[in-house]
Design a protein that fits this description.
Blueprint lengths: L7 H10 L8 E5 L8 H6 E2 L11 E2 L1 H4 L4 E5 L6 H13 L1 E3 L6 E3 L3 E4 L5 H7 L4 H7 L16 H16 L5 E2 L1 H9 L5 H15 L4 E2 L27 H19 L4 H8 L3 H10 L9
Parallel strand pairs: 1-4, 4-7, 8-9
Antiparallel strand pairs: 2-3, 5-6
Length: about 290
């Protein structure tokens, strides 16, 4: 479990690599990307002639992962019909291909990932409780990158090596200062955002060494930024919460427009005079207008 981009796929690959099944396939399935009418064929395969266009027999993901690992990514987005099919194969460890009658036994380790609260989805009726208990054997919560910034140097090293290997370019070195800059950023896109940034620097940086001043915006900005909204700032009453939110919102917008009162007022849809009053009301540091 974890937010989007936290590295759930990396965790799944690590589990497979360190397991006794590491010499067998690891097959990935993005459950959210497969249309409901194709999910059975994708997971279990089909026989020749099973439907229009099925000109040959095709193995499914479970068949391909035999003796290895299957990674069901975004299992919370799987339809109820598909969930029932997956439940059966987890319980009985056997299935039939679409259009076939032969029962195929399979031995796979199943790793499932989601960014949803499955217990909440059960209450809403969008996820089967029996499937939840079947896959929730050893739950792992992958924290967002902002809560484990000590991992950033090691992740950067891994991404540099991976990109260098795939693209056949010389690896670059991130200095300690550059890594410290990255550790101050809040990473709303999590590990995925970090990986993209590393690849960008590998492509665009002319030097073999990436210094702190080479890190581009917004990654060179401290976190949290002054004026950003934080749910912890909410008060005990609606009136207090509205005031705190408005203050944070105005401060962020003023900084976005470099404290240009005219541009800020136009952007948020209020009069200049009204904005001046709010700046005074909330005790914001009004700077010289540019």
């Amino acid at each position: 479990m974890g937010e989007n981009g936290t590295g759930k796929e990396l965790v799944a690959h690590t589990i497979h690599r360190l397991s006794l099944r590491n010499n067998k396939p690891m097959v990935e399935v993005n459950c959210a990307a497969i249309p409901e009418d194709l999910i059975e064929s994708e997971l279990f395969g089909h026989e020749k002639g099973a439907f229009t266009g099925a000109t040959t027999m095709r193995k499914g993901k479970f068949d391909l992962a035999h003796k290895g690992t299957i990674f069901l990514d975004e299992i919370g987005d799987m339809s109820l019909k598909a969930q029932s099919k997956v439940l059966r194969i987890l319980q009985e460890q056997k299935f039939e291909r679409v259009g076939g009658s032969k029962t195929i036994e399979v031995d796979v380790r199943v790793i499932a990932a989601t960014n949803k609260d499955l217990e909440g989805e059960i209450k809403k009726g969008t996820f089967r409780e029996d499937l939840y208990h079947r896959v929730n054997v050893i739950p792992l919560k992958v924290p967002p990158l902002r809560e484990r910034k000590e991992d950033i140097p090691e992740l950067v090293e891994v991404f540099v090596k991976e990109f260098s290997f795939v693209t056949k370019v010389e690896p670059k070195r991130f200095t300690l200062g550059a890594l410290e800059v990255l550790q101050r950023y809040h990473w709303p896109g999590n590990v995925r955002e970090l990986k993209n940034m590393v690849e960008r620097m590998m492509i665009l940086s002319p030097s073999d060494t990436i210094e702190a001043n080479d890190i581009p915006p917004p990654f060179n900005q401290d976190s949290p930024k002054r004026g950003d909204f934080d749910p912890t700032m909410l008060g005990n009453s609606l009136k207090e919460a509205k005031k705190r939110f408005e203050k944070a919102f105005l401060e962020r917008k003023l900084e976005e427009f470099h404290w240009n009162i005219s541009q800020t007022a136009e952007a948020i849809g209020i009069e200049r005079s009204n904005l001046h009053k709010k700046i005074k009301l909330y005790g914001l540091d009004e700077r010289e207008e540019r």
